[in-house]
Design a protein that fits this description.
The protein has 541 residues and is an all-alpha fold. The protein has 30 helices and 2 strands. The structure holds one DNA strand of 10 nucleotides. One of its GO terms (molecular function) is mRNA binding.
DNA sequence: TTAGGGTTAG
């Protein structure tokens, strides 16, 4: 079909790029169908591209446009292959790729096709197919394309063909950091941190991403100090560098370091993003650092950042763990786009507060809102029932979880269940339930039952459980300590002496308990029997 | 006429 000269500047086409939602795009689509514009492949391609940038989660609308294009060209096929390659179902790229190769003799694969399909091969680790496609690339005379070469290096490495990847890298004409990163990123993601370091030291060129791969590689292998050493000598740090280091500290529980680094970040020209704020809030939650948490909340408001998704969850969690349940509820109520995690964090918050009835009410509201509870929801709701002594409600919830939602109970659910039954004094029933569990998983739940024995003065069962725990976890002191305390509470000093002697003989020492509290904006961490050991700095307000 | 490689996170 011939295209008018003014076609590409048609106002309706610029509307495809202006659309910010599927429904807006569908209006443009309807207009195109009515006027026949949709029959122009170029117009359809603009619509298709706009649809791929808007629909991140579901490709059904993109697919429906693709199947209705009358005369698809390479661009149309490539856009569809790319959309699948970056989606949660990269394997579907192959179907479109085969259609392009064999169903349409008018259209040919080009350099874009190969970068996209090779990306799909890497995502699904299909080295055999990748190698075949590499053959087609060479046959088509595209073996010198820089983008294709870099994607090939990444694809081979991702599929475990490290020698082939390295060979391609060594044969490159010019040094490009992206080519080296293609291999480096795979080493760091797979946890081959020493290989990554060797490669990094060997690299003739590095860019900020190369450094970021090393920082996140060390962090993901639990080597936070090594990550910090790399971070400290970086000349250029971007938001990814800061977030990688901050999340490393957050993941390892070094919450004080998170706050220090966040403060350092404010002296440079890098603005925190949602990821930074989520990690800082989780550090505040872990430390009970309410004023720092409030500062982050104020920062969010000041900068007009929308409270949704991870950020909403983190804020609710921070306020709950810092003891401000009212504030957590207020934040929760103001979240416009709640997801299942937002609900889970609110229910967990109510559970921590011992507000069992309120947690159950929240659970029902969530169901009425059309949300499907997850494993995590039930852990919170069961522990809420357990903490608040709502035994029959808890048992009903457990039954509901299995029968209505088809969720297989995990060790955490059994832990809550044993706690619930134990509170009712049905200790032998709880014991029977536990003996059905696999040995590998059960120690923590046995400990929970041991606590119930103490509340119901069942020395015989306590001895039985303690013996069980000694067998399961000979190095763990928790069982010994609980039994010893139990004997002490009954004035059975011989029992106490016996257990303590057994601990000494095995060279075991109880780790001191610790707790944290914020006083006048400073977080103090107390070890049992000691003074203050941590004082994270206050943030600029 | 449109587009491409490596990218931190509850």
């Amino acid at each position: 079909m011939s295209v008018p000269a003014s076609f590409s500047s048609s106002p309706i086409l610029s509307l495809t790029e202006a659309a910010t939602s599927i429904s807006q795009l569908q209006q443009v689509h309807a207009y195109m169908l009515k006027t026949g514009l949709f029959h122009h492949t170029f117009a359809a391609s603009r619509l298709l591209t706009a649809a791929t940038t808007i629909s991140h989660h579901s490709l059904s609308y993109v697919e429906s446009i693709f199947t209705h294009v009358h005369r698809p060209n390479s661009y149309i096929y490539n856009t569809m292959i790319h959309a699948y390659a970056t989606s949660e179902t990269p394997g579907l790229s192959f179907i479109v790729f085969l259609k392009l190769l064999y169903e349409n003799s008018q259209v040919y694969a080009d350099k874009y096709t190969f970068t996209f399909i090779l990306k799909a091969c890497a995502r699904v680790c299909r080295g055999k197919e990748g190698k075949q496609i590499h053959g087609i690339v060479l046959k088509n005379g595209l073996g010198d394309d820089e983008y294709i070469k870099n994607t090939l290096i990444h694809m081979y490495a991702k599929c475990g063909c490290f020698e082939v990847a390295r060979n391609l890298l060594d044969r490159l004409q010019k040094d490009d950091a992206v080519s080296w990163n293609a291999l480096l990123s795979v080493y760091t993601q797979m946890g081959f941190v020493e290989l990554a370091r060797e490669l990094f030291d060997e690299m003739p060129v590095r860019n900020v991403e190369s450094w970021n791969f090393m920082v996140s590689g060390y962090v993901n292998s639990g080597l936070v100090e090594e990550a910090r050493d790399v971070f400290d000598v970086m000349l250029v740090k971007d938001i990814v560098s800061w977030n990688a280091m901050i999340s490393g500290y957050a993941k390892s529980g070094a919450f004080g370091e998170v706050l220090v680094l966040f403060e350092d970040m404010q002296t440079v020209e890098v603005r925190p993003d949602n990821c930074t704020l989520v990690n800082v809030l989780s550090a505040c939650a872990g430390l009970g650092a309410l004023s720092q948490g409030k500062w982050v909340h104020a920062y969010i408001d000041r900068n007009g950042i929308e409270v949704e998704g991870f950020l909403a969850t983190a804020l609710v969690d921070m306020y709950s763990k810092c003891g401000c349940i009212e504030k957590a509820l207020e934040v929760f109520d103001n979240v416009l786009k709640k997801d299942i995690s937002t609900w889970n964090s609110m229910i967990a918050g109510l559970s921590i507060h011992g507000s069992g009835h309120h947690a159950l009410k929240m659970f029902n509201q969530m169901i009425s809102g059309g949300f499907t509870p997850t494993e995590v929801t039930f852990i919170s709701i069961l522990s809420a029932c357990s903490r608040a002594g709502l035994v029959s409600e808890g048992l009903m919830m457990f039954d509901h979880m299995v029968r209505v939602y088809g969720i297989q109970p995990t060790i955490e659910h059994y832990g809550c269940l044993v706690d619930l039954i134990g509170r009712r004094g049905l200790l032998n029933e709880a014991k029977e339930l536990l003996n059905k569990l696999t040995v590998k998983e059960s120690p923590i739940v046995w400990q929970s039952l041991l606590a119930s024995c103490r509340n119901h003065d069942d020395v015989e069962l306590a001895e039985y459980i303690a013996r069980k725990l000694f067998e399961l976890e000979p190095k763990d002191t928790a069982g010994y300590v609980q039994l010893s305390n139990f004997h002490a509470s009954l004035g059975r000093w011989n029992g106490v002496m016996e257990v303590r002697t057994r601990m000494r003989e095995k060279g075991l020492k109880k780790e001191p308990g610790c707790s944290m509290i914020e006083i006048d904006g400073t977080v103090h961490e107390f070890l049992a029997g000691e003074g203050v050991i941590v004082e994270p700095p206050r943030l600029k307000v």
